Amino acid sequence: MNQTTFEKEAHLKDLVVKLLKDRNLSDYDMLDSLFEEIKQELHAHAKASNSV
Asked: Which helix (H) or strand (E) holds 27?
């Protein structure tokens, strides 16, 4: 599944709200994975911007 950073951020926000409402951390692995993917994409984008 290939999502844009914007779509991942939206999904991340929805997931955080859901977890806070439900007080359920069973989706922790998905949450952690999304944070890591977004962090890597932002890091890659920063590297690309600096090399120009």
From this structure: none
